Amino acid sequence: MSDKPVDTPAVEAVSSEPTAEASAPVATEAVSDVVEAPAAAAAAPVEEIKPVEESAAAPAAAAEIPADTAAAAPTAAAEETAVATPTETPIQALYTAAKEHGHPEIWGVTLADPATDVPSQIVFQKYLNANDGSLDKAKDQLLKTLAWRAKTKPLELLARAYNRDKFSGLGYVTSYTAEDGTYDPAAPETREVFTWNVYGSTKSIDQTFGDLQEFLNWRVALMELALQELSLATATKAITADYDPYKIYQVHDYKSISFLRQSPHVKAASTETIKVFAQNYPELLKEKFFVNVPAIMGFVYAFMKLLVAAKTMKKFHPMSNGVGLAAEFGGSSIKGLGQRLPSEYGGKAGELKTVGKETQIEAEAPAKTEETTVESSA
């Protein structure tokens, strides 16, 4: 990694939380945290999973009608409110909305009947969880995600090769299961996925962030690569409002980064990435670690508390020394997880650039050789 200070933003406020938690753009690093996974075979019925509304807290706004009462007590505005019919659960209502929209996939999961397809149940439940059980809000966010994926085609972005000078070495994904490499889908806690953002390795701010759409395409591809490792399409254990192990750790390394100024290119990338990730990747962040942060980060972190929801702030962990990261995972269901992290972060594995996966990067151009002109004599 270069020791040259890089003018990049301070922190990523939100990358995969509901839009309401990241609506205010701040001087933060949104440049935070896709081959299509096969659709899972039909799993055993998950009828025992109760709708999230039966256990989630009641919506704060009076206009939000709980799904379990809206059908029984219709109002004059009932036609404009997304509610489950008397014969369908809120999750089934979301599946109906998805079918009506027509786009068939989210996060590598081919959407199917959630009563028998666990991966689909997980996707729909996450949208309910992200909106505190409000079916109306969950449906709105789901439909916006479907429209965005239909237009953006994230799985195609994963298959694309990105410019080496702009993006090589800036983002990685690692995943961990048992030390012997086995994984039991019935125990999803025994798989952990990390995304690593190393913006201190940026060679040129103008090159990396100057083309906003190109940067967003790369950043989405990195997230989809992490989702591929999470492999929701092969999941066999459903989630609830209180139980969801299918989430991703994010690590942001701020070594060699300058916090004294912010490029307009970075600010634009930051703002747009927050919007895209908050809207289209809800309930996928497990915890976020900011490592190798300078003292000024304390001020930024305090400022963020005024703008970001408390439940999201609990997931944020600033650290002055990246080597201490390994010690944070002593309670993991994966034995010795911390020791298996890259060596820069206190683990005993190789360096991140050797153990991590990147999005596809364009092949390095062949070295130029000096041409020799051979003159022929008459």
Automatic annotation (TrEMBL):
Primary role: Non-classical phosphatidylinositol (PtdIns) transfer protein (PITP), which exhibits PtdIns-binding/transfer activity in the absence of detectable PtdCho-binding/transfer activity. Regulates PtdIns(4,5)P2 homeostasis at the plasma membrane. Heme-binding protein that may play a role in organic oxidant-induced stress responses.
Positions of region (Disordered): 1-27, 356-378
Transmembrane segments: 289-310
Membrane topology according to the record: Peripheral membrane protein
Organism name: Sporothrix epigloea
Residue stretches of biased makeup (Basic and acidic residues): 356-371
Family classification: Belongs to the SFH5 family.
Protein name, UniProt field: Phosphatidylinositol transfer protein SFH5
Any Pfam family matching the protein: CRAL_TRIO
Catalytic activity: a 1,2-diacyl-sn-glycero-3-phospho-(1D-myo-inositol)(in) = a 1,2-diacyl-sn-glycero-3-phospho-(1D-myo-inositol)(out)
Domain CRAL-TRIO: 213-353
SMART domains linked: SEC14 (SM00516)
InterPro entries in the record: CRAL-TRIO_dom, CRAL-TRIO_dom_sf, CRAL/TRIO_N_dom_sf, Sfh5
Cofactor(s) the protein needs: heme b
Subcellular location: Cytoplasm; Endoplasmic reticulum membrane; Microsome membrane
Keywords, sorted A to Z: Cytoplasm, Endoplasmic reticulum, Heme, Iron, Lipid transport, Membrane, Metal-binding, Microsome, Transmembrane, Transmembrane helix, Transport
